[in-house]
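Take our chain:
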Amino acid sequence: MLEASVHWGQLITIGLMAVALGMDALSLGVGIGMRGIRLLHVLRISLLIGIFHMLMPLLGIFAGHYISSLLGQVTGYAAGGLLVVLGVHMIINSYRKGTTTMIDYHAWAGMILFSFSVSIDSFSVGVSLGMFKSELLLTVLIFGIFGALMSMMGLLLGRRVSDKLGSYGEAIGGTILLAFGIMFIL
């Protein structure tokens, strides 16, 4: 059972943010999956992305708590602005053509680098969440689970479908973060 301090609205917000962050992993996973990937690599990459989707927001949350103590009442605007910038960045990146990855995702170093690059936006969201009161363990677990599951879905889906879904997934994720950023500002 959830603690009394976790409200359903907060849980839904964290879940939607996790989905938005997972869209990046899903869309990039589709691209990699279309190049052909073994199921063992799907599992490894998905687990690494899940781990990084927990580590990066955790680091961001700690940074956000620190920034919150410095900024005081401006915290909501700063957190919202950060989410708006991240959302716009994801939307713009989703429409860029010809982006290819030079990462060898078959090697451990490549998988770690790919997982880190997919999860870097989780740090920014973690900073925003760190400026507010949020359930740390619950937030990090939800981000990790969604990141792992959505990357796995993307990798497996990429083995089966065309590349049209990839850019739309990242654009949808960016739109969700943009909306939350505006909501925090207002």
About this structure: Residues 8-185 form one domain.
